[in-house]
Write a structure and sequence with these properties.
The structure is a homodimer of 260-residue chains. The first copy, chain A, has 260 residues and is an alpha+beta fold. Helix content of chain A is 30%, strand content 31%.
């Protein structure tokens, strides 16, 4: 069967022929260099799964430690990535975020990828909730007041996320928006207000952003955007927070690894 | 606290005042009619969670059976939707697909929503796999042959999905593409070839479609599209299938309900 290897044996043997214990350069450096060439040339495409370390070591006729060191070099260089219990993969140039599958925030997701980012609070004010948000948050007609916070998250100087969060003021009195420049919203709710988000409903769609969103994200016209609506719930089923999030479609992918 | 009700008590009491056992119209019809008005006016926005049936029955001072019948009417009308173990929600006009979270196909996802759709095979031919697909499928250089199938899935006469599947011919010899007009690909692989898909890696991004995709989907220029790359694996870790899928961004949302 043609499909039992992630990386085919001939491709691994081709590497072996180019690795020489006689050369001055350390074996692990030779291996990482050869792998790097294949990744950078596109011969090994993004998401390609590498064989497990013992198989790779056996095929290359080197120790597991040598393979592990070569792989570590490429992980640090951002070319490979290891996913818990799933293996080692060629990493793409897009940010891959797993928040369609896990209750992690955009911030936690970037942290997990080891990506440096900068959060900026653009505005924060107490407003009367628009009707659809009031309904989702279960607000009474006599207290529609919500804290509306607009933030950006930037990577490498580019805005990749625009986040509009709406929180009932009754839930988090005196919340200082500036803390959300350094800390995650879910973290602040849990640690400062004792409110634990137990589940979220997230829906993703592709949109063309309006002028307001384009300006806030400094997008060129025509850049497609992922739009995410999020409603967060406590364990008792009551809603805690409503958000609109816009995600740069040409920088971020949502990825899920789904088991049967 | 303002957030312990999904639908606020005042909103439920407002319904009660308009329900009268003295009227000729059956109670469940009065209730479903009142709910329908609120949904159609937008007062109850999409994704709004209704209280549980016993709470709703108590608040409206009617039996649970009456509430259940009113809700069933609105589910059949496509205005409400029940999600296993999660509750009853106001349904949106977009198709909501849960395939970022569950190992279900686009076909199974439409089936689950009770949506009628039509699948058409546009082309099917044996080709040499492009290099990135050959790598993902673990093909040897001496057998790069894959069955490339292009299909559309339409809802209400509009193409909502364009699917390009690539299968190693060695994996499914003599597969007749026409069976994929009626049956799901995963189903055919499992039942006709004994190949069980155990996990999939799916990545979603927002794109502007190229001319080829726009033409196949009969899209107006500028309609944003969700692009999904899928790689399917067997339990032994070997890859089975590679797909590119394009999803109409203005018709389909990907939704996930994520528990901590």
């Amino acid at each position: 069967m043609a499909t039992t290897q992630e990386l085919n044996p001939a491709a691994i043997r081709a590497l072996t022929r180019q690795v020489s214990p006689a050369e001055a350069e350390a074996l692990h450096e030779q291996i990482s260099q050869l792998m790097r060439q294949r990744i950078e040339s596109g011969e090994w495409p993004e998401h390609l799964k590498l064989p497990a370390e013992p198989e790779l070591a056996a095929a290359l006729n080197v120790s597991r430690g040598t393979v592990r060191r070569a792989i570590r070099t490429l992980i640090e260089a951002g070319l490979l990535k290891q996913t818990r219990g799933k293996g080692t993969f060629v990493r793409g140039q897009m940010l891959e975020q797993e928040f369609a599958q896990e209750l992690i925030s955009t911030a936690q997701s970037l942290d997990r990828e080891g990506v440096e980012y900068h959060t900026q609070v653009l505005s924060a004010r107490v407003v009367q909730a628009p009707s659809h948000i009031a309904a989702h948050l279960g607000l009474r007609a006599d207290d529609l007041s919500v804290l509306a916070i607009r933030r950006t998250r930037s990577v490498g100087g580019e805005v990749v996320y625009l986040l509009d969060n709406y929180l009932p003021t009754a839930l988090c009195p005196d919340l200082s928006p500036q803390v959300l420049q350094e800390r995650s919203l879910f973290g602040v709710l849990e640690h400062d207000y004792g409110v634990t988000v137990d589940s979220v409903r997230r829906t993703f769609s592709a949109i063309l952003p309006d002028d307001d969103v384009s300006t806030a994200m400094a997008l060129r016209p025509g850049v497609p955007v992922l739009y995410l609506e999020q409603i967060s719930y406590q364990a008792n089923g009551g809603s805690v927070e409503y958000s609109d999030v816009w995600v740069r479609g040409d920088r971020v992918r949502i990825s899920s690894w789904i088991k049967r």
